[in-house]
Design a protein that fits this description.
Length: 174
Amino acid sequence: MNPRYSRVAMGLHWLMAVLVIGLIGWGLWMSDLPKGPERGWAIGIHKSFGMLALMLVFVRLGWRISHRPPPNQALTTIETRLANAAHHLLYVLLVVVPSMGLTSVNFTKYPLKFFGVEIPKAGWPDDTLNTLFSTTHKYLAWTLIALIVLHVAAAIRHAVRRDGTLQRMLPARR
């Protein structure tokens, strides 16, 4: 039997998955809103959950660094290398995408709030820098979406193969 991830690793994975998928959906939805109070409210929610995601990814990275994932005995050497590369890129994007969004906010005239609590900003109103970081946030978010689709496709492939890879990250059946 293929060794499973710990409950903490599973919990962090699925919590991040729900949070990131929610942020992506919310971000796509709010991008079509006209300027006004509803858009401002939607952006505020997106910022707060984005900061939460950034904090959570650092918790997850800390756990991952201090708790090595169990080896996957079902993978070939090339599959292991591809999986490792994809996971490393996922972690990089899970840090960089919200960081770019957060940096962008530092260069707007609007306050930075975390669920209604104002946080001091490190920047100043600057449309050029705001646009640079906002655009970077947007394009890297699309890259993250593509990588998530690839990740889900790989999980489906493993489920079809019934090689035990998917079960490693799913809660055990009783």
